[in-house]
Amino acid sequence: MPGLEAGGCALxxxxxxxxxxxxxxxxxxxxxxxxxxxxxxxxxxxxAELFRAIDGSKARCRSWKLVVGEDWxxxxxxxxxxxxxxxxxxxxxxxxxxRRTYGDQDQEWHWCWGPQADSLVAVSWPHAxxxxxxxxxxxxxxxxxSAKPMGADLAGGLIVxxxxxxxxxxxxxxxxxxxxxxxxxxxxxxPDPAEGGRVEALCLRLEQEAARRGDTCRDIVLVDFETVGGxxxxxxxxxxxxxxxxxxxxxxxEIRGSLAWRLRQVALSSWPA
Length: 273
What we know:
- The protein is an alpha/beta fold.
- The chain is 34% helix and 30% strand.
- The protein has helices at 39-57, 87-102, 127-139, 150-155, 198-213, 231-242, 259-270; strands spanning 8-12, 16-21, 26-31, 63-68, 74-78, 109-116, 119-126, 143-149, 164-170, 174-180, 183-190, 219-224, 246-249.
- It starts with 7 loop residues before the first strand and ends with a helix.
């Protein structure tokens, strides 16, 4: 379409939105307080904020890359060989697995998945918000070239990856991945519990997962996504260390090639005092 510029990118979470667009890499930051009764309403509200920001910035991009906070995503790793079931059967199996994991699959979700070794890695998004995202892009004459949950984007940008580890990304929610020799064995999101209960919830869930799979890995790699000065990571580090876990806090230099991390730096450098 005439007049459209190079592609733009965006990071959307329940707490902030960052846009980067145009040949000169113009940026826009908005602090958000996304409201809604649940993930479906919140995701729709977040998508609406995204398009208000795009329109207000006068950004005219041919395509957009989007990273979305896991406030609204429901990731799973399903032990299922690719091709053994039809697409409809796969989606049914994913819904059942997610219902046991998250308990909130009664409303409609949009599933994306791909094969990995002898399993499927899948993420579901609230369906109405996903449709609003696709419709909004089409109305503006642009395309959504990629949409990733934040955990997947950050995991792909880590320089230091242990052969055996639990990767914990601390943001509005806790995104937890179990990696073994470069293979993703498990991935789930823990919602933010009551004040002061975050470390306890994480420790309990990791102990449950370790017992379920007979997993002896006690190494955690921690990415503190939102906190300046490491306050959140310090609380998690202390709590998990006392529970017998080894915790490595990722330094900024250990995260490269992550769109979410780069836009995070833009957000934190511009954050209102």
